[in-house]
Design a protein that fits this description.
Helices cover 75% and strands 3% of the residues. The chain is mainly alpha-helical. α3 packs parallel to α8 and α3 runs antiparallel to α11. The protein is flat.
Amino acid sequence: MAGIPAVRPAQVPKTSRRRSKLSLKRILLGYALVAPVVVWRTVTSVYPFLYTLYLSFFDNSPVRQSFDFIGLENYAVALKDHNVVDTIGFTFYFMAVSVSLQIVIALLTAQLLNGRFFGRNLVRAINLLPWALAGIVTATAARWVFDTEYGLINDLLWRAFDIRPIWLVDVGLARFAVVLTDVWKNTPFLTVVFIGGLQGISPEIYEAAKIDGSSGVKAFWYITLPLIAPLVISMAIFISIYRILSFEIVYGLTQGGPGMATALMSYVVYLQGFRVLNFGYASAVAMGLFVIVLVIGLLGYGLLRRAWARL
């Protein structure tokens, strides 16, 4: 005991104070580094959202030179507007069909590209080309592809079956063309994400499954799909929200036609805000779009938590 130096009581408070000062400096430094990003996001995201909410309660139009408070009248008019109601229906149709096709095709394509074969890296790079194109470029090119007289698809159909469908005039065909174009453009990105998820599964699991007599479709259904289910759900949430907010495909391919059959809610916001210059009404439709996105996000988050709990 005599060889152990005695610790003076006064030394402990000094050490604690130094540590607390150091921790405070680190906390302040962290806030200082994060502050510019928070301010920037507030200016570019939170403020526009709050101002859009504010405008939705006004009859604001520079054409009529009006800025009058009307409460919920814009929302009431939107709910009675047949164009808006039909647009909501097509928006959900577009989201459901496009997301479903993208997930199924991306899962199958990722399974193929995850295997070992000659030129795999080159094929993966080619797979990303549609996604790398700008949306407006894809939509403009698709407009020529679906052209009744000179389009590639109609040329093949005419040679094979002697028919020329009017893709962008018929309501059903125009909607199918919009969905098909969107799936062609955005599935490659989802494929790359799913490839990353498949590479995270240990090969030993599949080897053990082979010993038990499970391979091929059974291994995919009972091993692969359950293990990447959280990734599939999270990406489904992401692309569902992106589909609802999609704009350039419809703008470049059909301009919302025929009539308003292929118009998405985001396109209606564009028409009311930048063509008609009815800012108040456009803001009300935009807030309705926000509510739909919020509901989908919350439902998807609940499904994601359940998928994680099952693992």
